[in-house]
Amino acid sequence: MGDMSILVGQEQGNVAVTVLKIEGDIDASTFKDLQDKAAELVEEGASNILLDMADVKYMGSAGFRAIHAIANMLNKEHEEGMYKSKHVKLLNPHGEVARVIKTLGFDSFLEIYEDRNAAIASF
Amino acid sequence: MKPDSKIEILKNCSFLSGAENHILSALADATHNLEIAGGETVVAKGDSGSTMFFIASGKVRVHDGEVVLATLGTGEVFGEMAVLDADVRSASVTAETETLLLSLERDDLWQTISQSSEALKTIIVSVLQRERSIVHDVTTRTAQVQAFEKELEIGRRIQADFLPEYVPEVENWEITSYFEAAREVAGDFYDLFELEPGKQLAVVIGDVCDKGVGAALFMTLFRSLIRASCQYSALNPDIGKAADGSRDHISRILQTGIDFTNHYISTTHSKSSMFASLFFGVLDPQSGELVYANAGHESPIIIRSGGGHDILEVTGGIVGLFPFATFSIATEQLNPGDLLLSYTDGVNEAKNENGDQFTEERILKTAISGWKNSEDLLNRLLDEIYTFRGDAAQSDDITVLILHNLVVD
Q1: pTM
Q2: Distance between CA B344 and CA B397 in Å, rounded?
Protein backbone atom coordinates (compact mmCIF):
# COMPACT_ATOMS: atom_id res chain seq x y z
CA MET A 1 0.00 0.00 0.00
CA GLY A 2 1.32 3.39 -0.98
CA ASP A 3 1.83 6.67 0.80
CA MET A 4 0.16 9.91 -0.22
CA SER A 5 0.39 13.51 0.92
CA ILE A 6 -1.71 16.52 -0.03
CA LEU A 7 -0.57 20.13 -0.07
CA VAL A 8 -3.40 22.68 -0.23
CA GLY A 9 -2.95 26.03 -1.96
CA GLN A 10 -5.30 28.89 -2.84
CA GLU A 11 -5.22 30.67 -6.19
CA GLN A 12 -7.31 33.50 -7.54
CA GLY A 13 -8.31 33.35 -11.20
CA ASN A 14 -11.71 34.49 -12.42
CA VAL A 15 -12.89 32.75 -9.28
CA ALA A 16 -11.15 31.32 -6.21
CA VAL A 17 -9.53 27.97 -7.00
CA THR A 18 -8.29 25.51 -4.37
CA VAL A 19 -5.28 23.56 -5.63
CA LEU A 20 -4.60 20.14 -4.12
CA LYS A 21 -1.06 19.03 -4.92
CA ILE A 22 -1.06 15.28 -4.47
CA GLU A 23 2.13 13.31 -4.02
CA GLY A 24 2.46 9.52 -4.01
CA ASP A 25 -0.10 6.81 -4.78
CA ILE A 26 -3.88 7.19 -4.80
CA ASP A 27 -4.97 3.65 -3.99
CA ALA A 28 -7.33 1.71 -1.73
CA SER A 29 -5.35 2.76 1.35
CA THR A 30 -5.11 6.51 0.56
CA PHE A 31 -8.20 7.51 -1.50
CA LYS A 32 -10.23 8.17 1.66
CA ASP A 33 -7.70 10.81 2.80
CA LEU A 34 -8.10 12.61 -0.52
CA GLN A 35 -11.89 12.40 -0.39
CA ASP A 36 -11.98 13.55 3.27
CA LYS A 37 -9.60 16.45 2.60
CA ALA A 38 -11.75 17.61 -0.34
CA ALA A 39 -14.93 17.28 1.77
CA GLU A 40 -13.32 19.37 4.52
CA LEU A 41 -12.33 22.09 2.01
CA VAL A 42 -15.79 22.07 0.43
CA GLU A 43 -17.26 22.40 3.92
CA GLU A 44 -15.02 25.45 4.45
CA GLY A 45 -16.32 27.00 1.25
CA ALA A 46 -14.13 25.72 -1.61
CA SER A 47 -16.21 25.45 -4.77
CA ASN A 48 -13.53 24.91 -7.43
CA ILE A 49 -10.84 22.27 -7.05
CA LEU A 50 -7.80 21.70 -9.23
CA LEU A 51 -6.06 18.37 -8.57
CA ASP A 52 -2.35 18.70 -9.34
CA MET A 53 -1.37 15.17 -10.37
CA ALA A 54 2.24 15.82 -11.44
CA ASP A 55 3.66 13.82 -8.53
CA VAL A 56 1.08 11.01 -8.53
CA LYS A 57 2.87 7.81 -9.51
CA TYR A 58 -0.05 5.41 -9.33
CA MET A 59 -3.81 5.77 -9.32
CA GLY A 60 -6.05 2.72 -8.88
CA SER A 61 -9.81 2.44 -9.28
CA ALA A 62 -10.28 3.73 -5.72
CA GLY A 63 -8.65 7.01 -6.85
CA PHE A 64 -11.05 7.33 -9.77
CA ARG A 65 -13.98 6.73 -7.44
CA ALA A 66 -12.65 9.48 -5.14
CA ILE A 67 -12.41 11.99 -8.01
CA HIS A 68 -15.94 11.13 -9.14
CA ALA A 69 -17.16 11.58 -5.56
CA ILE A 70 -15.40 14.99 -5.30
CA ALA A 71 -17.01 16.11 -8.59
CA ASN A 72 -20.36 14.96 -7.16
CA MET A 73 -19.82 17.09 -4.02
CA LEU A 74 -19.29 20.22 -6.12
CA ASN A 75 -21.94 19.67 -8.76
CA LYS A 76 -24.75 22.15 -8.46
CA GLU A 77 -28.18 20.58 -8.69
CA HIS A 78 -28.85 21.83 -12.22
CA GLU A 79 -25.48 20.41 -13.31
CA GLU A 80 -26.35 16.87 -12.21
CA GLY A 81 -25.02 14.39 -14.75
CA MET A 82 -23.39 17.12 -16.83
CA TYR A 83 -20.82 16.33 -19.46
CA LYS A 84 -17.57 17.72 -18.05
CA SER A 85 -17.29 18.89 -14.45
CA LYS A 86 -17.03 22.68 -14.19
CA HIS A 87 -15.64 22.49 -10.66
CA VAL A 88 -13.07 19.69 -10.62
CA LYS A 89 -10.18 19.64 -13.09
CA LEU A 90 -6.88 17.83 -13.40
CA LEU A 91 -3.41 19.24 -13.85
CA ASN A 92 -0.51 17.33 -15.37
CA PRO A 93 -1.24 13.63 -14.94
CA HIS A 94 1.54 11.71 -16.64
CA GLY A 95 2.99 8.28 -17.36
CA GLU A 96 0.94 5.31 -16.21
CA VAL A 97 -1.63 7.59 -14.51
CA ALA A 98 -2.32 9.46 -17.78
CA ARG A 99 -2.60 6.15 -19.65
CA VAL A 100 -5.16 4.75 -17.18
CA ILE A 101 -7.18 8.00 -17.24
CA LYS A 102 -7.50 7.55 -21.01
CA THR A 103 -8.23 3.79 -20.86
CA LEU A 104 -11.04 4.30 -18.35
CA GLY A 105 -12.40 7.23 -20.37
CA PHE A 106 -12.03 9.84 -17.60
CA ASP A 107 -10.45 12.24 -20.11
CA SER A 108 -13.92 12.62 -21.69
CA PHE A 109 -15.43 13.80 -18.41
CA LEU A 110 -12.70 15.85 -16.78
CA GLU A 111 -10.81 18.79 -18.23
CA ILE A 112 -7.08 18.06 -18.14
CA TYR A 113 -4.48 20.83 -18.32
CA GLU A 114 -0.72 20.86 -18.71
CA ASP A 115 -0.30 24.52 -17.78
CA ARG A 116 -1.11 25.58 -14.23
CA ASN A 117 -2.09 29.17 -15.12
CA ALA A 118 -4.32 28.03 -17.96
CA ALA A 119 -5.95 25.54 -15.58
CA ILE A 120 -6.66 28.21 -12.95
CA ALA A 121 -7.95 30.67 -15.58
CA SER A 122 -10.32 28.00 -16.94
CA PHE A 123 -12.59 28.00 -13.87
CA MET B 1 -5.39 16.24 46.38
CA LYS B 2 -5.96 15.75 50.09
CA PRO B 3 -5.03 12.35 51.63
CA ASP B 4 -8.69 11.79 52.65
CA SER B 5 -9.92 12.28 49.07
CA LYS B 6 -7.25 9.85 47.83
CA ILE B 7 -8.40 7.21 50.33
CA GLU B 8 -11.99 7.80 49.22
CA ILE B 9 -11.05 7.21 45.57
CA LEU B 10 -9.11 3.99 46.37
CA LYS B 11 -11.92 2.75 48.60
CA ASN B 12 -14.49 3.16 45.80
CA CYS B 13 -12.26 1.28 43.43
CA SER B 14 -13.40 -2.35 42.98
CA PHE B 15 -9.77 -3.35 42.56
CA LEU B 16 -9.20 -2.64 46.28
CA SER B 17 -12.74 -2.94 47.59
CA GLY B 18 -11.95 -5.36 50.46
CA ALA B 19 -8.83 -3.63 51.72
CA GLU B 20 -8.78 -2.35 55.31
CA ASN B 21 -8.53 1.37 56.02
CA HIS B 22 -4.89 1.29 57.17
CA ILE B 23 -3.93 -0.44 53.88
CA LEU B 24 -5.87 2.12 51.84
CA SER B 25 -4.25 4.90 53.81
CA ALA B 26 -0.75 3.48 53.20
CA LEU B 27 -1.47 3.06 49.48
CA ALA B 28 -2.91 6.58 49.26
CA ASP B 29 0.33 7.93 50.74
CA ALA B 30 2.30 6.14 48.04
CA THR B 31 0.22 7.49 45.09
CA HIS B 32 0.97 10.58 43.04
CA ASN B 33 -1.47 12.91 41.30
CA LEU B 34 -1.24 12.97 37.52
CA GLU B 35 -3.21 15.40 35.36
CA ILE B 36 -3.63 14.26 31.78
CA ALA B 37 -4.97 16.39 28.93
CA GLY B 38 -7.54 14.91 26.53
CA GLY B 39 -5.77 13.10 23.67
CA GLU B 40 -2.63 12.41 25.67
CA THR B 41 -1.42 8.80 25.74
CA VAL B 42 -0.62 7.51 29.24
CA VAL B 43 0.72 4.05 28.42
CA ALA B 44 1.76 2.65 25.05
CA LYS B 45 1.36 -1.00 24.00
CA GLY B 46 4.65 -2.92 24.15
CA ASP B 47 6.38 -0.54 26.59
CA SER B 48 7.61 -1.91 29.88
CA GLY B 49 5.93 -0.22 32.82
CA SER B 50 5.99 -0.44 36.61
CA THR B 51 3.12 1.98 37.32
CA MET B 52 -0.60 1.37 37.63
CA PHE B 53 -3.29 4.04 37.59
CA PHE B 54 -6.57 4.73 39.44
CA ILE B 55 -8.98 7.07 37.64
CA ALA B 56 -10.04 9.86 40.04
CA SER B 57 -12.01 11.72 37.36
CA GLY B 58 -12.29 11.83 33.59
CA LYS B 59 -12.41 9.16 30.91
CA VAL B 60 -9.77 7.08 29.07
CA ARG B 61 -9.90 4.61 26.21
CA VAL B 62 -7.94 1.35 26.18
CA HIS B 63 -6.97 0.65 22.58
CA ASP B 64 -4.75 -1.26 20.20
CA GLY B 65 -4.05 1.23 17.42
CA GLU B 66 -7.45 2.28 16.04
CA VAL B 67 -9.30 -0.59 17.76
CA VAL B 68 -10.91 0.52 21.02
CA LEU B 69 -10.99 -2.33 23.57
CA ALA B 70 -12.69 -0.51 26.45
CA THR B 71 -13.57 2.91 27.82
CA LEU B 72 -12.86 3.43 31.52
CA GLY B 73 -14.02 6.13 33.94
CA THR B 74 -13.91 7.21 37.60
CA GLY B 75 -13.20 4.37 40.05
CA GLU B 76 -11.62 2.08 37.48
CA VAL B 77 -7.96 1.08 37.12
CA PHE B 78 -5.56 0.41 34.27
CA GLY B 79 -1.95 -0.63 33.91
CA GLU B 80 -2.37 -3.23 36.68
CA MET B 81 -1.50 -6.20 34.44
CA ALA B 82 2.05 -5.04 33.67
CA VAL B 83 2.46 -4.17 37.33
CA LEU B 84 1.32 -7.58 38.55
CA ASP B 85 3.16 -9.81 36.03
CA ALA B 86 6.05 -7.44 35.11
CA ASP B 87 5.41 -8.05 31.41
CA VAL B 88 5.10 -5.23 28.82
CA ARG B 89 1.92 -3.15 28.38
CA SER B 90 -0.75 -5.23 26.59
CA ALA B 91 -2.62 -2.21 25.19
CA SER B 92 -2.35 1.57 24.94
CA VAL B 93 -4.38 3.96 27.07
CA THR B 94 -5.24 7.49 25.94
CA ALA B 95 -7.25 10.14 27.79
CA GLU B 96 -10.56 10.99 26.10
CA THR B 97 -11.12 14.05 28.29
CA GLU B 98 -9.09 15.95 30.85
CA THR B 99 -8.39 13.19 33.35
CA LEU B 100 -7.06 13.05 36.91
CA LEU B 101 -5.15 9.89 37.82
CA LEU B 102 -3.52 8.50 40.93
CA SER B 103 -0.35 6.60 39.97
CA LEU B 104 1.10 3.80 42.08
CA GLU B 105 4.47 2.06 41.66
CA ARG B 106 4.80 -1.73 41.63
CA ASP B 107 7.10 -1.86 44.69
CA ASP B 108 4.77 0.33 46.73
CA LEU B 109 1.78 -1.79 45.80
CA TRP B 110 3.45 -5.09 46.76
CA GLN B 111 5.03 -3.78 49.90
CA THR B 112 1.73 -2.47 51.25
CA ILE B 113 -0.59 -5.11 49.97
CA SER B 114 1.50 -8.06 51.24
CA GLN B 115 0.65 -6.94 54.77
CA SER B 116 -3.05 -7.72 54.25
CA SER B 117 -4.35 -11.13 53.18
CA GLU B 118 -7.79 -9.51 52.70
CA ALA B 119 -6.36 -6.96 50.27
CA LEU B 120 -4.43 -9.67 48.40
CA LYS B 121 -7.60 -11.73 48.09
CA THR B 122 -9.48 -8.72 46.70
CA ILE B 123 -6.84 -8.16 44.04
CA ILE B 124 -6.88 -11.81 42.98
CA VAL B 125 -10.69 -11.79 42.77
CA SER B 126 -10.62 -8.52 40.85
CA VAL B 127 -8.12 -9.90 38.30
CA LEU B 128 -10.16 -13.10 37.92
CA GLN B 129 -13.37 -11.11 37.42
CA ARG B 130 -11.70 -9.19 34.66
CA GLU B 131 -10.58 -12.48 33.08
CA ARG B 132 -14.14 -13.83 33.24
CA SER B 133 -15.42 -10.70 31.57
CA ILE B 134 -12.79 -11.09 28.81
CA VAL B 135 -13.79 -14.75 28.29
CA HIS B 136 -17.42 -13.62 28.05
CA ASP B 137 -16.52 -10.93 25.47
CA VAL B 138 -14.46 -13.35 23.40
CA THR B 139 -17.30 -15.90 23.42
CA THR B 140 -19.82 -13.27 22.34
CA ARG B 141 -17.55 -11.93 19.61
CA THR B 142 -16.72 -15.42 18.32
CA ALA B 143 -20.46 -16.10 18.01
CA GLN B 144 -20.89 -12.78 16.16
CA VAL B 145 -18.00 -13.56 13.80
CA GLN B 146 -19.51 -16.99 13.09
CA ALA B 147 -22.87 -15.37 12.34
CA PHE B 148 -21.20 -12.91 9.92
CA GLU B 149 -19.28 -15.74 8.26
CA LYS B 150 -22.54 -17.60 7.76
CA GLU B 151 -24.14 -14.51 6.20
CA LEU B 152 -21.13 -14.09 3.91
CA GLU B 153 -21.34 -17.74 2.89
CA ILE B 154 -25.01 -17.24 1.97
CA GLY B 155 -23.97 -14.15 -0.02
CA ARG B 156 -21.25 -16.14 -1.78
CA ARG B 157 -23.72 -18.86 -2.77
CA ILE B 158 -26.28 -16.34 -4.01
CA GLN B 159 -23.59 -14.54 -5.99
CA ALA B 160 -22.47 -17.79 -7.62
CA ASP B 161 -26.01 -17.95 -8.98
CA PHE B 162 -25.25 -14.73 -10.92
CA LEU B 163 -22.58 -16.53 -12.94
CA PRO B 164 -23.67 -18.86 -15.76
CA GLU B 165 -24.71 -22.24 -14.37
CA TYR B 166 -23.21 -23.98 -17.38
CA VAL B 167 -21.30 -22.95 -20.49
CA PRO B 168 -23.65 -23.12 -23.48
CA GLU B 169 -22.92 -25.81 -26.05
CA VAL B 170 -22.24 -24.08 -29.35
CA GLU B 171 -21.56 -26.23 -32.39
CA ASN B 172 -17.97 -25.96 -33.63
CA TRP B 173 -16.93 -23.72 -30.72
CA GLU B 174 -15.05 -24.59 -27.58
CA ILE B 175 -15.82 -22.22 -24.72
CA THR B 176 -13.81 -22.32 -21.51
CA SER B 177 -14.28 -20.15 -18.43
CA TYR B 178 -12.49 -19.74 -15.12
CA PHE B 179 -13.44 -17.71 -12.06
CA GLU B 180 -11.57 -17.44 -8.77
CA ALA B 181 -12.62 -14.89 -6.15
CA ALA B 182 -9.93 -13.32 -3.94
CA ARG B 183 -12.42 -13.08 -1.07
CA GLU B 184 -15.75 -14.78 -0.26
CA VAL B 185 -17.60 -12.49 -2.65
CA ALA B 186 -16.27 -10.92 -5.82
CA GLY B 187 -16.50 -7.90 -8.13
CA ASP B 188 -15.46 -9.88 -11.23
CA PHE B 189 -18.04 -11.59 -13.37
CA TYR B 190 -18.59 -13.17 -16.74
CA ASP B 191 -21.69 -14.14 -18.62
CA LEU B 192 -22.59 -16.26 -21.62
CA PHE B 193 -26.10 -16.31 -23.02
CA GLU B 194 -27.83 -16.78 -26.34
CA LEU B 195 -29.78 -13.80 -27.69
CA GLU B 196 -32.21 -16.31 -29.10
CA PRO B 197 -31.97 -20.08 -28.74
CA GLY B 198 -29.41 -21.45 -31.18
CA LYS B 199 -28.47 -18.02 -32.49
CA GLN B 200 -25.92 -15.35 -31.49
CA LEU B 201 -23.96 -15.85 -28.31
CA ALA B 202 -23.47 -12.85 -26.01
CA VAL B 203 -20.14 -12.89 -24.15
CA VAL B 204 -19.47 -10.58 -21.20
CA ILE B 205 -16.45 -10.27 -18.94
CA GLY B 206 -16.43 -7.50 -16.36
CA ASP B 207 -14.68 -6.14 -13.31
CA VAL B 208 -16.55 -3.95 -10.84
CA CYS B 209 -14.24 -1.53 -9.00
CA ASP B 210 -13.42 -2.15 -5.35
CA LYS B 211 -13.66 -5.53 -3.63
CA GLY B 212 -15.86 -7.42 -1.21
CA VAL B 213 -19.54 -6.97 -0.50
CA GLY B 214 -19.97 -3.55 -2.18
CA ALA B 215 -18.43 -4.78 -5.44
CA ALA B 216 -20.49 -7.98 -5.23
CA LEU B 217 -23.77 -6.06 -4.92
CA PHE B 218 -22.93 -3.98 -7.99
CA MET B 219 -21.73 -7.07 -9.89
CA THR B 220 -25.23 -8.53 -9.63
CA LEU B 221 -26.67 -5.23 -10.87
CA PHE B 222 -24.33 -4.88 -13.90
CA ARG B 223 -24.76 -8.51 -14.90
CA SER B 224 -28.55 -8.45 -14.61
CA LEU B 225 -29.03 -5.13 -16.43
CA ILE B 226 -26.88 -6.21 -19.38
CA ARG B 227 -28.51 -9.60 -19.71
CA ALA B 228 -32.07 -8.30 -19.23
CA SER B 229 -31.74 -5.33 -21.60
CA CYS B 230 -30.09 -7.43 -24.36
CA GLN B 231 -32.53 -10.30 -24.17
CA TYR B 232 -35.43 -7.89 -24.11
CA SER B 233 -34.19 -5.88 -27.09
CA ALA B 234 -33.39 -9.06 -29.03
CA LEU B 235 -37.07 -9.96 -28.76
CA ASN B 236 -38.27 -6.43 -29.43
CA PRO B 237 -38.46 -5.56 -33.16
CA ASP B 238 -38.70 -1.83 -32.30
CA ILE B 239 -35.02 -1.78 -31.28
CA GLY B 240 -34.02 -2.25 -34.91
CA LYS B 241 -35.83 -1.70 -38.17
CA ALA B 242 -34.84 -5.20 -39.25
CA ALA B 243 -34.68 -7.86 -36.57
CA ASP B 244 -32.74 -10.07 -38.93
CA GLY B 245 -29.53 -10.91 -37.05
CA SER B 246 -27.56 -8.64 -39.38
CA ARG B 247 -24.50 -6.83 -38.11
CA ASP B 248 -26.56 -3.61 -37.74
CA HIS B 249 -29.21 -5.40 -35.75
CA ILE B 250 -26.66 -7.02 -33.42
CA SER B 251 -24.86 -3.69 -32.99
CA ARG B 252 -28.11 -2.04 -31.95
CA ILE B 253 -28.82 -4.75 -29.36
CA LEU B 254 -25.32 -4.42 -27.96
CA GLN B 255 -25.48 -0.62 -27.98
CA THR B 256 -28.86 -0.66 -26.22
CA GLY B 257 -27.55 -3.04 -23.55
CA ILE B 258 -24.45 -1.03 -22.71
CA ASP B 259 -26.13 2.42 -22.96
CA PHE B 260 -29.06 1.32 -20.82
CA THR B 261 -26.80 -0.24 -18.15
CA ASN B 262 -24.54 2.83 -18.04
CA HIS B 263 -27.40 5.28 -17.86
CA TYR B 264 -29.27 3.36 -15.17
CA ILE B 265 -26.27 2.95 -12.84
CA SER B 266 -24.75 6.42 -13.39
CA THR B 267 -28.04 8.17 -12.64
CA THR B 268 -29.67 5.87 -10.06
CA HIS B 269 -26.48 5.06 -8.12
CA SER B 270 -24.37 8.18 -8.75
CA LYS B 271 -23.65 8.63 -5.03
CA SER B 272 -21.90 5.26 -4.78
CA SER B 273 -19.32 6.20 -7.47
CA MET B 274 -19.20 2.54 -8.52
CA PHE B 275 -18.16 1.53 -12.02
CA ALA B 276 -17.19 -1.49 -14.06
CA SER B 277 -14.87 -2.18 -16.93
CA LEU B 278 -16.54 -4.49 -19.43
CA PHE B 279 -15.73 -6.41 -22.54
CA PHE B 280 -19.06 -7.17 -24.16
CA GLY B 281 -19.32 -9.03 -27.46
CA VAL B 282 -21.90 -10.85 -29.53
CA LEU B 283 -20.58 -13.77 -31.55
CA ASP B 284 -22.24 -15.18 -34.64
CA PRO B 285 -21.12 -18.80 -34.31
CA GLN B 286 -21.88 -19.51 -37.99
CA SER B 287 -19.80 -16.74 -39.53
CA GLY B 288 -17.33 -16.17 -36.68
CA GLU B 289 -18.14 -12.45 -36.68
CA LEU B 290 -17.69 -10.80 -33.28
CA VAL B 291 -19.41 -7.45 -32.72
CA TYR B 292 -18.08 -5.91 -29.50
CA ALA B 293 -17.58 -2.95 -27.21
CA ASN B 294 -14.56 -2.75 -24.93
CA ALA B 295 -15.52 -0.35 -22.13
CA GLY B 296 -12.25 0.45 -20.36
CA HIS B 297 -11.42 -3.24 -19.94
CA GLU B 298 -8.17 -5.21 -20.29
CA SER B 299 -7.74 -5.81 -24.02
CA PRO B 300 -8.70 -9.35 -25.08
CA ILE B 301 -6.29 -11.08 -27.46
CA ILE B 302 -7.19 -12.95 -30.66
CA ILE B 303 -4.63 -15.66 -31.44
CA ARG B 304 -4.74 -16.31 -35.19
CA SER B 305 -4.58 -19.93 -36.36
CA GLY B 306 -1.99 -19.08 -38.97
CA GLY B 307 0.22 -17.27 -36.46
CA GLY B 308 0.13 -13.71 -35.19
CA HIS B 309 -2.38 -12.04 -32.92
CA ASP B 310 -4.66 -9.01 -32.61
CA ILE B 311 -5.41 -6.93 -29.52
CA LEU B 312 -8.97 -5.65 -29.04
CA GLU B 313 -8.23 -2.19 -27.62
CA VAL B 314 -10.80 -0.15 -25.67
CA THR B 315 -13.62 1.39 -27.71
CA GLY B 316 -14.85 3.57 -24.84
CA GLY B 317 -14.54 4.32 -21.12
CA ILE B 318 -15.87 2.49 -18.09
CA VAL B 319 -19.58 1.88 -17.43
CA GLY B 320 -21.62 3.31 -14.55
CA LEU B 321 -20.24 6.80 -13.74
CA PHE B 322 -21.05 9.21 -16.55
CA PRO B 323 -24.62 9.43 -17.94
CA PHE B 324 -23.38 10.98 -21.20
CA ALA B 325 -20.69 8.41 -21.92
CA THR B 326 -20.74 7.00 -25.44
CA PHE B 327 -19.59 3.51 -26.32
CA SER B 328 -18.34 2.67 -29.79
CA ILE B 329 -18.97 -0.71 -31.32
CA ALA B 330 -16.28 -2.54 -33.29
CA THR B 331 -16.18 -5.77 -35.30
CA GLU B 332 -13.62 -8.56 -35.55
CA GLN B 333 -13.58 -11.87 -37.33
CA LEU B 334 -12.79 -15.15 -35.54
CA ASN B 335 -11.75 -17.38 -38.42
CA PRO B 336 -11.45 -21.18 -38.30
CA GLY B 337 -8.85 -22.11 -35.67
CA ASP B 338 -8.73 -18.59 -34.14
CA LEU B 339 -9.04 -18.16 -30.39
CA LEU B 340 -10.20 -15.20 -28.28
CA LEU B 341 -8.64 -14.89 -24.82
CA SER B 342 -10.30 -12.39 -22.45
CA TYR B 343 -9.46 -11.83 -18.79
CA THR B 344 -9.72 -9.40 -15.86
CA ASP B 345 -6.92 -7.42 -14.19
CA GLY B 346 -6.50 -10.15 -11.54
CA VAL B 347 -4.46 -11.87 -14.28
CA ASN B 348 -2.17 -9.13 -15.64
CA GLU B 349 -1.87 -7.46 -12.22
CA ALA B 350 -1.22 -10.69 -10.25
CA LYS B 351 1.68 -9.79 -7.98
CA ASN B 352 4.69 -11.78 -6.79
CA GLU B 353 6.36 -11.26 -3.41
CA ASN B 354 8.38 -8.29 -4.74
CA GLY B 355 5.18 -6.56 -5.84
CA ASP B 356 6.00 -7.05 -9.55
CA GLN B 357 3.02 -7.62 -11.83
CA PHE B 358 2.40 -10.58 -14.14
CA THR B 359 1.78 -8.13 -17.05
CA GLU B 360 0.17 -8.42 -20.48
CA GLU B 361 3.50 -9.46 -21.96
CA ARG B 362 3.51 -12.70 -19.93
CA ILE B 363 -0.13 -13.37 -20.87
CA LEU B 364 0.71 -12.93 -24.55
CA LYS B 365 3.78 -15.16 -24.26
CA THR B 366 1.59 -17.94 -22.81
CA ALA B 367 -1.15 -17.30 -25.38
CA ILE B 368 1.23 -18.00 -28.28
CA SER B 369 2.96 -20.95 -26.56
CA GLY B 370 1.50 -23.76 -28.68
CA TRP B 371 -1.43 -25.00 -26.58
CA LYS B 372 -3.54 -27.99 -27.64
CA ASN B 373 -6.99 -26.51 -26.93
CA SER B 374 -8.61 -23.78 -24.87
CA GLU B 375 -8.64 -25.89 -21.69
CA ASP B 376 -4.90 -26.49 -22.14
CA LEU B 377 -4.28 -22.76 -22.69
CA LEU B 378 -6.25 -21.94 -19.51
CA ASN B 379 -4.23 -24.45 -17.47
CA ARG B 380 -0.94 -23.15 -18.85
CA LEU B 381 -1.96 -19.58 -18.01
CA LEU B 382 -3.02 -20.50 -14.45
CA ASP B 383 0.21 -22.49 -13.92
CA GLU B 384 2.23 -19.48 -15.09
CA ILE B 385 0.32 -17.16 -12.73
CA TYR B 386 0.69 -19.47 -9.71
CA THR B 387 4.41 -20.00 -10.39
CA PHE B 388 4.95 -16.26 -10.83
CA ARG B 389 2.98 -15.41 -7.70
CA GLY B 390 4.96 -17.83 -5.51
CA ASP B 391 3.99 -17.40 -1.88
CA ALA B 392 2.30 -14.03 -2.43
CA ALA B 393 -1.44 -14.05 -1.67
CA GLN B 394 -4.04 -13.66 -4.41
CA SER B 395 -4.81 -9.93 -4.32
CA ASP B 396 -7.69 -9.69 -6.79
CA ASP B 397 -10.39 -11.81 -8.42
CA ILE B 398 -9.24 -13.78 -11.46
CA THR B 399 -11.57 -14.39 -14.40
CA VAL B 400 -10.67 -15.88 -17.79
CA LEU B 401 -13.01 -16.53 -20.70
CA ILE B 402 -11.83 -18.24 -23.91
CA LEU B 403 -13.68 -18.77 -27.21
CA HIS B 404 -12.08 -21.13 -29.72
CA ASN B 405 -13.32 -21.60 -33.27
CA LEU B 406 -12.98 -25.37 -33.91
CA VAL B 407 -13.84 -25.29 -37.61
CA VAL B 408 -10.94 -26.73 -39.59
CA ASP B 409 -10.08 -24.58 -42.53
Answers
A1: 0.80
A2: 8
